[in-house]
């Protein structure tokens, strides 16, 4: 059993039955639901007080929607991970959430065990999102950079990476989780997590999907 304290989770969803179901699904010794909010306004008041490790956020909220709440709360609580938990598998919602700084995107059809795995995976460096969604996000973010930044070379920030960081980034671009990268490179998942943190810092990006898009952009530009 890990010596780490339980992951502290806050739920934001306007349906009380959904919150109760998610709370029940997350009942585990290493996960604690520390608070709930039914609206964006409640979440804006409660989250800074509780400072959870993870906020599970629905997109469809009354008044201010989840995407706008994400944009407002993210900069205020940079150490808190925000993951969308929604019924929407809409591509537009997915891309807007990830561009706005979400750490992942989950749909409410997940079973309890899968939801717990996704929550635990955040701490160990996994991207809480299906592989199909992750591939869509990476392709779109890489396309955004090609369209909006043709005068900016990605060679400079990539050149700041160490040889090992380049290897890790390449595997991120292939959609591998931290555990899978660790197995490929023969290092520990925690070491991979450290490398990923350094990569995000050097590239000035918010999450693994954005880092992977930098790799794909460089690759498509002829950087083998």
Element layout with pairings:
Layout: E1 7-12, H1 16-25, E2 31-37, H2 40-50, E3 54-57, H3 66-76, E4 81-86, H4 91-99, E5 104-107, H5 112-123, H6 131-148, H7 155-159, H8 163-173, H9 178-185, H10 189-203, H11 208-220
Parallel strand pairs: 1-2, 1-3, 3-4, 4-5
Notes on the structure:
Residues 150-155 have low confidence and may be disordered. Helix 8 (163-173) crosses helix 11. By secondary structure, this protein is of the alpha/beta class. The protein has 2 domains: 7-123, Response regulator (Rossmann fold, 3-Layer(aba) Sandwich), CATH 3.40.50.2300; 134-220, 3-Layer(aba) Sandwich (Rossmann fold), CATH 3.40.50. A 5-stranded parallel beta sheet has the order 2-1-3-4-5, with helices on both faces. The N and C termini lie far apart (42 Å). The protein has helices at 16-25, 40-50, 66-76, 91-99, 112-123, 131-148, 155-159, 163-173, 178-185, 189-203, 208-220, and strands at residues 7-12, 31-37, 54-57, 81-86, 104-107. 55% of the residues lie in helices and 12% in strands.
Q: What distinguishing features does this structure have?
A:
Rossmann fold, five-stranded parallel β-sheet, 224 residues
Radius of gyration: 18 Å
Give the percentage of residues in beta strands.
5-15%
CATH evolutionary superfamily of the largest domain: Response regulator
Mean pLDDT: 84
The CATH first-level class of the largest domain comes to: Alpha Beta
Order of helices and strands: EHEHEHEHEHHHHHHH
Helix share, percent:
40-55%
Predict the CATH topology of the largest domain.
Answer: Rossmann fold
Strand order of the largest sheet: 2-1-3-4-5
Q: Gap between N and C termini, in Å?
A: 42 Å
Q: What is the number of helices? A: 11
Q: What's the total number of strands?
A: 5
Number of domains: 2
Class by alpha and beta content: alpha/beta
CATH architectural arrangement of the largest domain: 3-Layer(aba) Sandwich
